[in-house]
Amino acid sequence: MTRKQRRLYFVVLGMLALGAATALVLTAFNDNLVYFHSPTELAEKGVPPERRVRIGGLVEKGSIQRDGQLVRFRVTDMVNAVPVTYNGILPDLFREEQGVVAEGKMGTDGVFVAADVLAKHDENYMPKEVSDALKASGHWQDGKEGGPKE
Amino acid sequence: MIVELGHFALILAVFVALVQATVPLIGAQRGNQAWTNMAGAAATAQFLCIGVAFAALTYAYVVSDFSVLNVATNSHTAKPMLYKVSGVWGNHEGSLLLWITILAVFGMAVGVFGRNLPPALRARVLSVQAMITVGFLLFILFTSNPFERLDPAPADGSGLNPLLQDPGLAFHPPFLYLGYVGFSMAFSFAVAALIEGRVDAAWARWVRPWTLAAWVFLTCGIALGSWWAYYELGWGGWWYWDPVENASFMPWLAGTALLHSAVVVEKRDALKSWTILLAIITFSLSLLGTFLVRSGVLTSVHSFAADPTRGVFILALLIACTGGSLTLYAVRAPALKGGGLFAPVSREGGLVLNNLLMSTAAGTVLLGTLYPLFADALNLGKVSVGPPFFNAVFVPLMVPMVVAMAIGPMLAWKRGDLGGTLARLKLAFAAAAAAAVATWLLVGGDGATVGAVGGIALAAWLLVGTLVEYGERIRLFRAPLGESLRRARHLPRAAYGMTITHAGLAVVIAGITGSEAWKIESVQVMRPGDTVEVAGYDYTLKSVNSFRGPNYSGLRGVFEVTRDGRPVTVLEPERRQYTQPPRPTTEAAIWTNGWADLYAVIADADNRGGYVTRLYHNPLIPWLWIGALTMVVGGLVSLSDRRHRVGAPSRRQVRPAKTLQPAE
Predict the structure, then answer these.
(1) CA B572 to chain centre
(2) Shortest CA distance from A35: residue in chain B
(3) Is B299 in contact with A101 (Cβ distance < 8 A)?
(4) Which of A37, B29, B363, B611 has its CA 20 to 30 A from that of B391?
(5) Beta-carbon neighbour count of residue B314 at 10 Å?
């Protein structure tokens, strides 16, 4: 096998790998991209009930109700709020008036059913989507690192 | 005073690094021996300066000197000593100082252990290393100075994030950084080789131990981090394909590819320019990892408060480093002529396949990790790319990889015989088939478990294939036992390293498969006295007691676990409320029997006398840790190979080692 043949062989092999990877990525993207919406976007545009999405904002003050392991709360960007239910143990840093990101599906009754509520390791941290959503709704307080706090 | 000394030493280090980055490089270009030889001394001086700075910060933490801003915001007098010390790197500024300290340690190691390197190569390597140091030192001094004073000093500090007050996480960052920074050595060697215009077998032999050491550390760091997430975060999982996790995984994938392609350079004098490129990519991915973690541009479950200006600085460093080296590569690489020819089916071919799949995998992980950034920048909406995407892409790439892993090492160099090799692997085929059938029968197979059955079969294939390869090397059962033992003794450690590491990966695959496919989760409200059955085990909540720890108060649930009426264990998960900073954490209770973990978490009271509890049955997850540990051991064994240690990698006509010139 000459050097040229070998190079050709590698190029073909590389192309194959690249092609396969591209195909994989594209199909996976199609099925698995999860879009983020703020409560206002949800109220204005809505999402199809079967689509898995993320929502984010602040946990509305006084909205947390526990019923056994079922938790109800509202996620707000200070303009609109979305009621959310979650069945399970909330992350340790889940609190009123803190930033939160929930992933799940919108129910037909307008209640968001969360499959995951994302935990943060640091309470000063505000998810970028949430701070952007708050900025978009004009309720971003540009204070210390985390924005709105108690 | 000591703190100022540390600050001063850090500033001094910048000047030493500037000298180290230029003088030896010029010396090597011009053939000026005195200038060339000062590289080693400069590296030692560099280490001393940075070491003093690191020691000063550690001192400030140990004595709780709250007049230092960094200590005041991240430490507290009531913290146990271990976490006072680990608090040094439990924050942005301190962790960067750790990063650069490790860089200095590696630099000095080249100076000390690299005596048998040709002086010009050593000088160039150390110069490139110093350029990286300059960048990071400036970054620390201008944007994240750990020695900043606070006036007036508060009476007490605000404490370390309690999630980080854990032995697993105390050692996770140092290992991770040893890995990241270790790849800077491969990078420096690659750039030095490009400047020199020469890559040969000896070069690869110098690079291999450094890359291997970095790989071992990174593997260890990732495993520790994952283990910590498993027992500390309380959601029963160990990997989330989160941007921060991916940030450490991408250099690992590229580094693994580099490790294998360096073998081809060493043994067969081929794939030179590819190996150089891979070294550049691996370190760039390490820098990218640092950037992603430190800048907070991506939403991650692990994100810590971050400052965008720092992100811009690291991005600039990344561009300078990657851009510069790639430009140099574009100019110089065509001159690197490949040597050994080989057929597609050959040991080299197998290693090329490894490289191809590993780098493709790294590429897809990179794409998935950065896509939300691109989408946001291009106004395609805010998206997140989660575990389903990575699983869908990663698994199909890794399956052929693992299949080939058993075959590759058995092929001959240059031209292999695929049919013959497959015939020699009949034992591995049999094992895979047996494992598949056994798994199918054991779990009552249906359509949903096909993937899991495949995973177990794949693990068996790799494990037995690896053992068959080892057996053939020592001619087990083909030669008298004495002869086999003699061969086993004389087999190089590097060969043992490969066998152990590949076998370890097989165990890891089984662990991943088991924990993904057969995990059982049960969330419910329990009152003391209630019993819940999970996977054949009965969990009875006996009592919930409150207690006090050194810097927290907590609730402890006591679960008595029985199976068919016989006591198994008592699990005592905790819910802690730390006093400073005031924050709750979850401490899962885990019991393992080697085949599965029983995992219990207790959470909030429901105000009606009950507690939300979460119980998991995690089959095979202990294997994940055992396998990862085995891989680390394999790497260490390989690292102890005498060919890596003694002066074997010497080029001909090495100039006699000069005594070190004092650094003026």
Answers:
(1) 31
(2) B383
(3) yes
(4) A37
(5) 22
Which among B112, B138, B160 is the end of a domain?
Answer: B160
* pLDDT tens sequence across B32-60: 888 988 898 999 999 999 999 999 999 99
Residue matched to tokens 């706090």: A149
**What are the pLDDT digits (tens) for B229-254?**
888 877 778 888 888 889 899 999 99
B484 Cβ contact list (under 8 Å, min separation 6): B474, B475, B476, B477
Residues B471 and B607 grouped into a single domain: no
How much of chain B is helix, strand and coil, in % rounded to 5?
65, 10, 25
In this structure, are B431 and B505 located in the same domain? yes
* Stretch among A20-29, B89-98, B291-300, B511-520 having the lowest mean pLDDT: B291-300
Domain ends where: B485, B516, B547?
A: B516
Amino acid at B242: D
Q: Is the pLDDT of residue B653 over 50?
A: no
Give residue B464's domain range.
Answer: 425-516
Looking up tokens 């409320």 gives: B577
Whether ipTM tops 0.90, in short, is: no
Please indicate, yes or no, whether residues B614 and B531 belong to a single structural domain of this protein.
Answer: yes
Q: Could you tell me if residue B432 is inside a domain?
A: yes
Encode pLDDT of B104-161 as tens digits. 999 998 888 877 888 889 999 999 999 999 999 998 998 889 998 888 888 888 777 7
Chain A residues within 8 A of B584 when measuring between CB atoms: 92-93
Contact B603 A145 (CB under 8 A): no
Residue A90 to residue B296, Cβ atoms within 8 A:
no
Considering its fold, how many domains does chain B have in total?
A: 4
In tens, the pLDDT along B369-412 reads 888 888 878 887 778 888 888 988 888 899 999 999 999 898 88
Burial class (CB in 10 A: 0-12, 13-18, 19+), A80: middle
What's the pTM value of the predicted model, to 2 decimals? 0.89
Are both B229 and B337 inside the same structural domain?
Answer: yes
**Among partner residues B307, B585, B612, which is closest to A89 by beta-carbon distance?**
B612
Which chain B residues are closer than 8 Å to A127 by Cβ? 299, 303
Shortest distance between the Cα of A90 and any Cα of chain B, in A, equals 8
Rounded distance, CA B261 to CA B278, Å?
Answer: 9
Residues B149 and B190 in one domain: no
| Domain-embedded: residue B418 | no
